[in-house]
Amino acid sequence: MKSTYFFIIILYVITFVSCNNEKNTSNNKTTKSTTIQKNKIDTTKTKKNLNNIVISSPLDNESYKIGDKINVNISLNDKYKIDSVKYFIDKKYIKTDNKNTNKLLTDSLKVGKHKIKIVCFYNGKKEQKHKSIVLNSDIIPKELSYKIVKKYKHDKSSYTQGLIYYKGYLYEGTGQWKESMLRKEKIENDEIIQSYNLPDNVFGEGIVIIDDKIIQLTWQSKTAYRYDLNSFKLINTFNYQTEGWGITNYGNDLIMSDGSNKLYVLEKDFFTKLYDIEVYDNNGPVNYINELENVNGNIFANIYQSNFIVEINPKNGKVIKKLDLTELVPKEYKGDNDNVLNGIAYNKENNHFYITGKRWPVLYELEIFDK
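Below the sequence we write its predicted C-alpha cells.
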C-alpha cells in the first residue's frame, strides 16, 4: 500500500515538471519571435532613404573636357546645415579646388564616362547621391600628312580586314562569307606564298602576330583562330564576348576593337579581357574603330566607312592625331560604303606604312609625318 502511494506521488511530480518545461519553452519561443520581429522593425527603420539633399549640378551625363573644374551645386532642406562633403569618382576619392571645395578637378582622369558619388554629412546623418558625367579630350587632334613612296598591285578580290608587315612579307586577313582567308604575300607582286581558308560560315577580321603565332578574329562568331606562323596550321581557337574587328600587339598583351569607341586589352594566351579603353576626341566618342596597328606604343586605327586614320594614346584614350586619305581612294570606290579604306601595316625598319582598302586594286607604301 505504501509503495503504491509513493509511486503515485512520484508520477505527479514528473508530470508537473514536464508541464512547466513546456510552458517555459513556449514562453521562450514567444519571446524570441517577438525579439526577431522588433529587430526587423528596427532594421527597416535604419534602411529608410534620406532625401534632404538635391544636386542641381552636374546634370546626369553632362559633358566636360579633361581639365575642367566640375561645379557641384548642393541644396539642403532648410532645417539642416551641411557639416562636410566628400566626393568620389569611379569609387576613388577625388580632390577639389582648394579655393572652392565644391569644384571637382579632372586633370588626372581619363576620357569617357565616369560615375560621381557625393556624400554629405549633416545633423549627425550621412546622405549620398550619384551622378554620371562624360569627359571629352582636352586636345584637338593634330593633322598628319603623307608622301607616297611606292604603289603596288593588290588583289581586287581581297576584302581586306587585317594587314601586317613582318620580315619582308605582308600577312593579310580577309573577310566575307565563304571568302575569308589568311594569306602570306610578296609585297612586290602580290604573289600569295601561303594561305588558309576559313570555314564558309565564318567572316574573317583583323590579324596579329605574337610569339611566332598568328591570331585571326572573326566578326560575329565570337571566335579567334590561332595558327602556327610558319605552317599556318590551326593550333586552337579562343572565344570572346563581343564582335571582332581589329587587333594588334600591346606590349605582352593584345588590343582588340569591336566597332564601338572601345578598345579591349586582352591577355594573349587565353584572350581574357583585362580592361577596356574608351576613345574620345575633343568632340566626343570616336566610334567605328576598325583595323589596328601599334606604332611605337600608340594605336593607329581605321575609322570604318571613312577615309580617316586616327592615332590614339592608349594610356588615356585620347585621339592625338588624324590622317585624311581621301585622295588615295580609287575612283571606282569614291562614295562607296563597302569597299572602304582598311588595312594598316607598319615597317619599323624604315618607318613606312602599307595602306590599302577592301577590294582595292592598289597597295600604297607611305611616309607619314606631322603637317
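The chain has one helix and 32 strands.
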